[in-house]
Amino acid sequence: MQGKTVVITGATSGIGEVAAVALARQGARILAVGRDSKRAESTLAKLRAANPDAQHAAPLADLSRLAEMKRISAEITRLAPEIDVLVNNAGALFNTRQVTEDGLEKTFALNHMSYFVVTGLLLPHIKRGGRIVSTASDAHRGARLDFDDLQCERRYSGFSVYGKSKLCNILFTRELARRIQGSGVSANCLHPGFVATRFGDQSGGLVSVAVRLVKPVGAISPEEGAKTIVHLAASPEVEGESGGYYYKCKPATPTPEAQNDADAKRLWDISTRLAGLGA
Length: 279
Known about the structure:
alpha/beta, Rossmann fold, 8 helices
């Protein structure tokens, strides 16, 4: 990773930050996208300690808003006209249904649309041999997309909607890999495991309570959770591999719903329209 440029969203806490620091230690320059300025400064200090020779940056954006997705993508391309690795990692779980200024359900906007929009805008700047890595989850198991209610207006449950967003991540990766085949750029996604991070703490209601109770018992460390991100971003073992779903640095099999090519294309087309991007 010496001299390579890595862009990571959701990089100022949890597995995103751990992966960013690990890749910096391998010699990479990191653009760590976050939302909170204090956490961004803390992450930047860690990156500079890990690799003081690189021009790291920590640009800020609210990735639940389409305008911010587009603005930060433009800012990233000014900071780094050529990118070696893009890691889509921003995400959250919301106990109650919230709607963004774009009229999108917030989980769908942050967990799926930010991956879709940022990747689409940065793709022309990803070098041949580059990699796109997206954090999905085994929370997709049991999830199904209702294309007549993608914004979950009829029924909302925080865990269920989160699982649907993670299904979107896998379908997005599948369709992206198909579209960029032969370009020299690869796209893969992963399940990091149930990780003891800040994730879920701010969800509110019973979700936050449940997450806090379960973490001490069944959660792995952020360092363990970040390993598959680092593996997909840097390991020669996955050179040229694309369209896969990984767990513990090994290929894994997602659900049949996550392997539905028709749904993957349909989600792509809908996302293109919602984002106001070209086909």
